[in-house]
Design brief:
The chain is built from three helices and three strands, in the order αββαβα. Helix 1 (5-12) packs across helix 2 (48-61). It is α+β, with helices and mostly antiparallel strands. The relative contact order is 0.18. Strand 2, helix 2 and strand 3 form a beta-alpha-beta unit. The chain is globular. 25% of the residues lie in helices and 21% in strands. It has a three-stranded mixed sheet with strand order 1-2-3, sandwiched between helices. The chain starts with a helix and ends in a 24-residue tail after the last helix. The chain has helices at 5-12, 48-61, 87-94, and strands at 18-28, 31-40, 70-73. The mean pLDDT is 93.
């Protein structure tokens, strides 16, 4: 990824309805695009208004280059036995690859939601 994800995380953490987030890059049309996956607080759904708010927050407080091309709501992230989010597993999965660390994940079944992100 050509931009630092820390700036994106810093902005997303300001949005109270976002419980957790994961940022990754996806190869896209001979380039890369930023995808932001979010877990929202209970009973909330990602809608166009919230997508707009997230993008605006990132754009104003980081830069237009940091704004994700896609924002996708998920229920959980793949996690290691120590409960750390596995960004590597998500990145491999969105590129239709089998993650090397699947056996180290305590919930590998969640990877199916990251397949075929168009």
């Amino acid at each position: 990824m050509r931009i630092g994800t820390a700036e994106i995380y810093r902005q997303v953490e300001k949005i109270t309805v976002v419980k957790e987030a994961l940022v990754t890059a996806q190869k896209w049309h001979n380039d890369e695009r930023v995808i932001l996956f979010v877990i929202l607080n209970e009973h909330l759904k990602l809608d166009q208004q919230l997508i707009k708010e997230i993008k605006q927050t990132i754009k104003l407080n980081a830069s237009p280059r940091h704004v994700p091309a896609k924002i996708v709501q998920v229920d959980d992230f793949p996690r290691t036995q120590n409960d750390k989010i596995s960004e590597i597993a998500v990145k491999a999965t969105i590129h239709n690859e089998i993650p090397e660390n699947v056996s180290a994940l305590k919930n590998p079944e969640v990877l199916k939601v990251f397949k075929n992100i168009v």
